[in-house]
């Protein structure tokens, strides 16, 4: 990404992958194939000669997906509060750390990806609440819980009071 050259996929199937530089005539090339019907891939050929001129490189880099950028930047945000994951800061970090210019929209998708990695999926997390409440009541005597779900079986309201905190 830092060199800002882009590539195109020329072959992509279950057995092999090939990539070439986006600029016609450039010799840069990578080919890999699956190793003996396993999940491992083996590099077959790599030509590192890269003839792209600066006029054909772009700082927007089409291979820089929000997932790739998020994975590259996640350590910069790991110990920050998620309210500090502002797209403007993500755009800045992508430019300074990776040399890639990204749009506000892509920065927002990067933020969503990083939050999901660091804190999990909100839909999956909310789905765990009923089971959590069941275990809470089972292992904490006197604990009271109440859940109200909407018509789509999504959590609407919840209440809990630990048995040790309830006056008898």
Integer-rounded radius of gyration = 24 Å
Distance from first to last alpha carbon: 64 Å
| Order of strands across the main sheet | 1-2-3-4
Biggest beta sheet attributes: 4 strands, antiparallel
Helix content: 25-40%
Structural class: alpha+beta
Q: What number of structural domains do the residues give?
A: 3
- Indicate the low-confidence ranges by residue numbers: 54-60
Measured by DSSP, the beta-strand proportion falls in 15-25%
SS elements, strand count: 6
> Can you write the helix and strand succession as a string?
EEEEHHHHHEE
Organism: Cucumis melo var. makuwa (Oriental melon)
Protein name: MuDRA-like transposase
What do you see in this structure?
The protein is α+β, with helices and mostly antiparallel strands and 168 residues long. It has helices spanning 66-77, 87-98, 104-119, 122-127, 129-139, and strands at 7-12, 16-21, 29-34, 41-47, 144-149, 155-161. It has a four-stranded antiparallel sheet with strand order 1-2-3-4, with no helix packed on it. Mean pLDDT is 82; it is low at 54-60.
Outline of the structure:
This protein is α+β, with helices and mostly antiparallel strands and 168 residues long.
């Amino acid at each position: 990404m830092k060199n800002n050259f882009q590539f195109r996929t020329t072959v992509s199937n279950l057995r092999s992958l090939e990539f070439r530089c986006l600029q016609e005539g450039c010799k840069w090339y990578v080919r890999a194939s699956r190793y003996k019907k396993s999940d491992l891939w083996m590099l077959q050929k790599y030509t590192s000669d890269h003839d792209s001129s600066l006029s054909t490189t772009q700082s927007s880099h089409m291979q820089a997906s929000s997932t790739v950028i998020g994975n590259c930047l996640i350590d910069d945000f790991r110990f920050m509060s998620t309210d500090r994951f502002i797209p403007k800061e993500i755009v800045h970090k992508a430019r300074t750390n990776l040399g890639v210019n990204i749009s506000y929209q892509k920065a927002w998708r990067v933020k969503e990806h990083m939050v999901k990695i660091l804190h999990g999926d909100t839909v999956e997390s909310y789905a765990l609440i009923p089971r959590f409440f069941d275990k809470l009541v089972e292992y904490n005597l006197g604990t009271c819980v109440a859940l109200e779900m909407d018509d789509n079986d999504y959590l609407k309201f919840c209440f809990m009071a630990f048995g040790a905190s309830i006056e008898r």
